[in-house]
Batch of 4 targets.
Target 1
Amino acid sequence: MNPFQALKLHLAPMPAKLMLLLAMLFSPATLASSTMASAGSTLDLTATLGGYVALAIFILAYLFVMSEEALQLRKSKPVLVAAGLIWGIIGFIYVGHGMSALSEAAFKHNLLEYAELLLFLLVAMTYINAMEERKLFDALRAWMINRGFSLRSVFWLTGFMAFFISPIADNLTTALLMCAVVMKVGGDNRAFITLACINIVIAANAGGAFSPFGDITTLMVWQKGVVQFEQFIALFLPSLVNYLLPAAIMSFFIANTTEQAAIEKVTMKRGARRIVGLFLLTIATAVCCHSFLGLPPVLGMMTGLGLLQFFGFYLRKTFEQAVVKARERAERENNLKRLEQLGNVVPFDVFTRIARAEWDTLLFFYGVVLCVGGLGFMGYLALVSELMYQHWDITYANITVGLLSAIIDNIPVMFAVLTMNPEMSLGQWLLVTLTAGVGGSLLSIGSAAGVALMGQARGVYTFTAHLKWTPVIALGYAASILTHLWLNAGLF
């Protein structure tokens, strides 16, 4: 029996069950008609009405997310409701079996994953807001324009920066930084900002694929021990091809002109460069926390937030003294504009910045993490992984993992693969690492970088805008796979 026949047989009872949905939805006997592998194990809900309903709810929620631009409905709303309904179904079934402790532990595990992501994002956003307030990005924009960088040059520059920074930092933080730059340079040029954001997402995801620190999935593969630290470098050229091919095509659709706005000199406010230094220190601390201490990277990020708070305290305490010195220097040089360097007393109010954070994006992450976690707890991710790795050719299965990561978050997909731990060569483990890392670029909702940029460039970089370029991105996806199969043939 081929995999498609097996899948058809598995889903055959679904239409009949769905016809009885309204009558049987709240029936414990129907919802909990599942099997247990052994006492104390989780329930397999993949072939039950409860599982089918949860899957339908998730698909419906994603359809609403995809229609955000047309419906003017913020993407967080449907996934929040879907997460509540899916885990409500799980809780109802597990209570009926007297196993509520298992479902509670699973929910808390997924909530912890989201909490780490939430705090990580809040720190990154706070640093970016602080650098924005200190006019760092205004100065960078003016520097680019004054040196004659065209929009196409900025497109390539930010893309390459994202590609080479994301292996050291993570792709999410890198994308947020580069997006802030292109939004300053682009101004009201929506077409440029859209293409530049797509380019940044592709570059950040591709750059993160050849480094254990570039993405959570690469960290998982490294921690599992199936790929050693130095072996990730074999993915450098395939990752570069993944970025360069779509970037080269998109660059022809960007006018090779220079923005004429903001050509005047921009003076950064006091403390701007030191905040950049603190941010780099924060990223390094996050990496070290995970690599050397075995602790979550969010610990380093939150420590860095504390350092930024102390720096704000220092600026406030030394503000009056700085004003006197700046005024004396400005009078000597007859340059009163130097006083603009001082800015406000503190670079930011952290609580104000948290209130102004892109909460739609943060809540969308909550919904996605909980929805996918719920479906995984029901057994769907294990089902898909088992179907692919036991019935398909391994190469095709690993390529499909990348396609799935564009729809479902790549973290649970990779977790399911690592849990199965199929017998594969080093070349195949590198292939699935590559596809899981870059496959999320196919859709804006396929990676944390894409979702974050939809919030940062709200109304400009959207799901639909990204979808128009998916065929071009798919060319890069296919080319990177072929490059890996050719260059690293000896590893298979």
Target 2
Amino acid sequence: MTAARRRWPPDTLLVRILAPGVFALVVLLLVSLIVHAALLRQAAERGAAEVAAHRIAGAVDAVAAAAVPDRKRLAQVLSGSDLALSWGDAPDLPSDRARAASDLAHVGRLAEVTREIRIAAGLSDAEHGALQDVAVSVRLADGSWVNARVLAVSLIAADDTAFRVAVGAVAVALLLCVALASRVSAAPLAKLARTVRHLQPDGDAPLPQVGGPREVRDVAEALDGALHRVRDLLRQRSLALGALSHDLMSPLARLKLRADELPDPALRRTVQRDLAEMEGMVGYVLAYLRGADGGGEPAVPVSVTDLVQVVVDEFAETGTDVEERHLNEATVLARPVALKRVLRNLVENAVKYGANPWVEVTVREGGVEVRVGDRGPGVPPEDLARVFEPFFRGDRARAAGGGSGLGLPTAKAIAEAHGGALELASAPGGGTIAVLKLPLSPPTSAVTPA
């Protein structure tokens, strides 16, 4: 887990395939539920209107057959506890719910005695499964109106819970199918990414077949071709490095022998110092160009504490004391010579550019940290971001002379090749602290003596 928070939702092919499908499915289900509710409402209103028309058909026929002076009284007589009838010259309907209902003329004998039918849909009473206040107005042949209000029309309970459960089950099944299809589509690419991530550029292992659609196979073939080209370049670089090492180091060795024969002591020391500086520069350049492969050195379990003490003892032999702080015992899987080069470079920087150098080894969170610090002036803030750039040297390094600007870049490359990291920071109160982080080795591994 890196310091930055992981993005959520992750920007992966699986999410990009799944998200549109889920969105479309959710929209489709919502539209289906809305349409279902509207159709259910429409069917309930139509059924209630037809029930109300059936209930008043006989009463309308009786009112139409009665004499005009008797119609109002007859309507009142035919009214009941849940049915209110009236006769008049105009329809009596709620204006916001009124509509024509010519399709109800087929009910009873309404078609024979009416010229127009209007209804007003009732108000839903979900608690009792009914529609309240269903109004029907029937226009008789002489132009008068029979108005009826049915207080409540019971409906067959259309409980849509089962429907919603069924829709939900179908939605879950479709989501699972879409997720499975998306995972199957993205799996070859994920497998390819894992395979490429663990391939060693200097190895000989080919890129395995990943299968999947044609586009994924094309990407795998292109990566395999690129991997072969990179390995060829690395082999050519190794050959060139070997030739360069031989061609440069051999003349330098002969020059050192000839310098020993110079009669002038001052000139001899100057030439020897220049040759030693050239030899050191060539060594650093070769180490940097050799990179993280360690020159073919095998990785073995190494005691970091013992290796640190060896480096400290070597500096003590030259008269430089390095303070040893907490040295916890820790074992890492590493290339001993390459790791020693990193430790020596860090201690050498602390000795050369600082004062009172110190070193400590700490085990924490499944890894080991080697801290090398000093109490010197520290690294300027503007240089901290560039100290790991090849050939970069700060003002104090340039003033001190010597060096190639490749020590820290080489150390960082070696640390990352071991699965670790190298960080550099200014210490509070002055000085510089270099932190080398390495993963711990399995406890069953045999430790190679430092």
Target 3
Amino acid sequence: MNDKLMLMIPGPTPVPEAALLALAKHPIGHRTSEFSNILAEVTENLKWLHQTQTDVLTLNVSGTGAVEAGIINFLSPGDRILVGSNGKFGERWVEVGQAYGLNVEEVKVEWGKPLDPAVFAEKLQADTQKQIKAVIITHSETSTGVLNDLESINRHVKAHGEALIIVDAVTSLGAFNLPVDAWGLDIVASGSQKGYMIPPGLGFVSVSPKAWEAYKTAKLPKYYLDLGKYRKATAKNTTPFTPPVNLIVALHTTLRIMKEEGLESIFARHERLKNATRAAIQGLNLPLFAADSSASPAITAVAPQGIESDKIRSLMKKRFDIALAGGQDHLSNKIFRIGHLGFVSDRDILSCIASLEVTLTELGYEDFTPGSGIAAAVKVFSQS
């Protein structure tokens, strides 16, 4: 059946009908008072979502662009930085740092395992000359479904005193409690096609007062991603360059939806969806790729044995028009990933798991009792 696509991937994520209708409106001028009023409310609601009173800036980029902006605005060539790397996106920030001539020290862990805060503590404590200028952490490592212990790592960064904490929160912001001010996070980057529940095209960067001090002496090249330009424009409820007007109008809608639901309810919903999905996968006797203690609220990675992940994904798409994500790099065809981020409900998880049970049966996988996945998910939902 056409037009029944169900996105169960880490991004883009499903979009509420109200936001789709906002996208369908005629564009308005981005230098008009009407747009300025919309942008002013969007900025205030972004601060609410970030739990901060500091600047939250909206850029015309994807999540990668937001993180890159968060790196290049506050550092200078040759600066020493620590980068946590336990998946595809941690590796990406290593590459970005190297591309800009930074002295990158990679804190590497096997994919599927969480970063060890003790390693960061050791390196930061040993830096008595305060040469480490930043620590970059991917909070929710989308490629593996691992949630890193940002709060603990950040405590060690704060004890260092000099280094900035730069956070890739692309698939954690809006899904997990991330109190920017309470934790003292310096730079937090995210993207619109995740927890924000709108299509790709916008990136967001929150910036602390400490980071703005570093900005004054940072010497890496920048122009379009110069956050100083965005700060000045945002203060006047405008933008430095032409924005994707309708995306911001749609964001205006989804942030209102999120405020109506409330932060605690949003975080609880994502936790419930995570727990139900993981219980269902265990009920189907399929191995989970990440441990319960470090499982991301945004994505669940599954490592089936004796059956190719890509065959599961292909049949799910063909038979039920449900899109699952595959593995990346060396995990290609080794894992599949079920997204439960953003505009996702209990019903979506039940539909996905039921369809997965049929798919597994048709592919000849018999190591489960029909209905066991659904039963496990229902048990979680009934107790939540």
Target 4
Amino acid sequence: MSSLDIRELEAFLVLAEELHFGRAGERLYLSQSRVSQLLRSLESRIGAPLVERTSRRVGLTPLGESFLSSLRPAYEALRSSVDEARAAARNVDGVLRIGFQGTVDDYLARAITGFEERYPQCAIEVAEIALSDPFGPVRRKEVDCAVVLLPVAEEDLLLGPVFSRQPQTLAVSARHPLAGRAAVSAEELADCRLIGIQDSAPEYWRLAQAPRETPEGRPIPAGPLVNTLQEGLSLTAADRGAMLLCRSTAEYHGHRGSIAFVPVEGLPDSLLGVVLRRRTGTPQAQAFAEVVAETLAEERG
């Protein structure tokens, strides 16, 4: 037992799920031949085939089925023990306070669930961050980390995983001339009064969310300034201006009959990132950033 290779067991478990050497290799970040090599080594160690291979399909032998049924719970228990030990060693317990702008989308919800499963002794508190103050709650230690719109260029803050690349969407009043369009170009923003963000946020960040000119240099009229997303949507519904939003936020608020959400072509996609304090960050925040990065890798894989 001392010579047992955990990589062999992982290769068998993934192959048993995929029943395809190529897909198993992709999940494990290994070549197809390496997966086959690990399986052969495990079968040699056991003394009998676990997998039937033909030119058309891959299947488990009866012994393979029996081995899988006993191995899976044992492997999950082993992984859980390792995660618990890692959490204890890093002191990942207590409370993790996460700030966010807008809405908690499906990706972020999966990351939070993954964190809860890995660190069950650490409770999560989620708080919405004002649109006009993306970095303040982290600096004031009101939250341990924040999920905010990019860009982030603060010397005292650390940018963790970047995710949720989304096309930008223009929110306009249902009475606005652009409301019925299937899409608008970035140059047509010159025909809108764009709602801006109060100046408690850094200027470079505010200009990224509400630019003053189109990509070709045409000026974009300035609309009223807001502190929160809800203020911006209320002003949009009242036809006081238009507002740029990422697609997931637009989809979340898409039920509002007084506002239309129109895709914008020709603007950079919006991105979210996890922001932590650079020198006084917490173990909980660092662990959450790692879980977000792993969730992103799984999604891309």
